[in-house]
Specification:
The protein is α/β, with parallel strands linked by helices. Helices cover about 35% and strands about 25% of the residues. A six-stranded mixed β-sheet has the order 6-7-8-3-9-10, with helices on both faces. A six-stranded mixed β-sheet has the order 16-17-18-13-19-20, sandwiched between helices. Strand 14 and strand 15 form a beta hairpin.
Length: about 475
């Protein structure tokens, strides 16, 4: 008997067809990948498998139980990690585990041996609140919570989105220890993670386009999963600094999240600001964008002091958070108008720019669509475009392409190149090392300090690595302080 049997499943939301005649089966103990571009229907399929929503057409069975009439039995044998953070941020690590164990009628003590290999890596932080964990630690805790009741089936909807490359590898190494004992269905936009599956199903526009080995599917749909690298677009750099940082420190009690960093970013530059989860880069970015003030040191952004002129900085820059920064219950046009007003744009200029922006993003026909209904990739492209609507001299992008497929990420980077070509300085963080190659210069933080700074080619030569993934992994694994 197959562990999962999906037969001719359909699901619609109003006029939107999310899934259309989807069929596939998963064998017991198999690692099965669900892959595809944004809006393909993967999350809807996971929610059906987890009995959170019902299919409108077809049937789905998990371990012999129908998802409609056997949902109680399924929920006892399934572990589920949704794409969004699934833990309770105000509970500690240990409290989250106790809570999830209780939900499934078991205890942490009974399930401990099953999660020991994973949980032991974060157990020393058991009294820390989940909301204060780094991205990699959150994912390890979420996986522990999903496994504490010893499920037969594990559903992972993009479990490593927003996680640095080293932590991603560690999580998939943990999944490898479960191979054969637990049936795993995972969605991922990362090529290296796709290759770690036994088989994959490629979904597009709600339909299964192919089911095969990872290599065969990646080859067949190479235009989506392995597009040709972008050619750098010409953009003018000057020696004039837009960011100057000298011996910057941010401490929380005795803990130095940012520990004496110094660097300069020049006008017109695409500057990559990299680091593993917990390295301190988000804390540094918060100081540079005026969201928090330094403990010590000096920083200037567009000529404004980050310690005393943070409100002026906020008015002068563009900023796109890694947590989606638009209002999902407003339409596309309403979001554009709202942020244009916040930026103090002239109404007639805003109207004209709105029409140009809609045309550039091919969203004119969807202008009155609620943003919450857009695929993630479109949301991110819209959020970026809105963040530079007022033509700032500098834009901060905090992991802007997390969770989207390679082809969509390339479209996003064309927007970045276009902005740089118009003279906007781009300060970007990313966990995709192929994107690091697109930056003019890169800094890499480890343990709150900048351990490397230079062009991608110079860093590869300096550390004797073939690519930026090798450079990043080499430095991140030298970290000494815990996450």
């Amino acid at each position: 008997m197959n562990a999962i049997e999906v037969s001719h499943v359909g699901k619609s939301y109003g006029h939107v067809r999310a899934l259309c005649d989807v069929s596939f089966s998963v064998q017991p103990g198999e690692v099965f990948g669900l892959i595809g571009p944004d809006g393909a229907g993967k999350t809807s399929l996971f929610r059906i498998l987890a009995t959170l929503i019902k299919p409108q057409e077809g049937t789905v069975c998990v371990e012999g139980h129908d998802v409609v009439c056997g949902l109680t039995a399924i929920r006892r044998i399934v572990g589920y990690m949704p794409g969004k953070f699934s833990l309770y941020p105000d509970l500690t690590v240990e409290e989250n585990l106790h809570f999830f164990a209780t939900l499934f009628g078991t205890t942490l003590a009974e399930g401990y041996d099953h999660i020991r290999a994973i949980y032991s890596q974060i157990e020393r932080f058991k009294d820390r609140k989940a909301g204060a964990l780094s991205g990699g630690m959150k994912q390890k805790l979420a996986l522990s919570c999903a496994l504490v009741h010893r499920p037969k089936v594990l559903l992972l909807d993009e479990p490593t989105t927003g996680v640095d490359p080293v932590s991603r590898k560690e999580l998939w190494d943990m999944l490898a220890t479960l191979r054969g004992a637990v049936t795993i269905v995972a969605a991922t936009p990362y090529r290296d993670e796709i290759l770690r599956c036994d088989r994959v199903a490629f979904l597009q526009a709600g339909e299964v386009q192919g089911i095969d080995t990872p290599q065969n599917v990646l080859t067949r749909f190479a235009e989506i999963f392995n597009p040709a690298p972008l050619s750098p677009m010409a953009h003018e750099e000057t020696g004039q600094p837009v960011i100057e940082v000298e011996h910057l420190v941010k401490a929380f009690g005795t803990f130095r999240a940012v520990d004496d960093i110094s660097f300069t970013v020049h006008r017109g530059e695409i500057f990559g600001f990299l680091g593993a989860n917990g390295a301190g880069k988000s804390t540094a970015m918060h100081m540079l964008t005026g969201l928090s003030q330094p403990t010590a040191g000096r920083g200037m952004v567009l000529g404004f002091d980050i310690a005393t002129e943070h409100e002026a900085i906020k008015r002068s820059i563009g900023y796109m958070s890694q947590r989606f920064s638009l209002y999902e219950d407003l339409t596309i046009v309403e979001n554009i108008r709202l942020f244009g007003g916040i930026y103090g744009m002239n109404p007639s200029v805003l109207r004209a720019k709105t029409e140009v922006l809609l045309e550039q993003l091919a969203l004119t026909a969807q202008r009155n669509t609620l943003v919450g209904s857009l695929p993630l990739g479109w949301k991110q492209k819209l959020a970026f475009s809105v963040s530079i609507l007022h033509d700032p001299g500098l834009v901060f992008l905090d992991e802007p392409t997390g969770g989207v497929d390679p082809a969509t990420r390339q479209q996003f980077w064309r927007l970045i190149y276009d902005a740089a070509g118009r003279g906007i300085t781009v300060f970007v963080t990313t966990h995709y090392m192929d994107e690091a190659e697109y930056c003019d210069r890169i800094s890499i933080m480890v343990d709150g300090q900048i351990r490397a700074l230079g062009t991608p080619e110079a860093l590869k030569r300096q550390f004797g690595q073939p690519d930026m993934d090798g450079v990043f992994t080499h430095l991140a694994r030298s970290a000494r302080r815990g996450d």
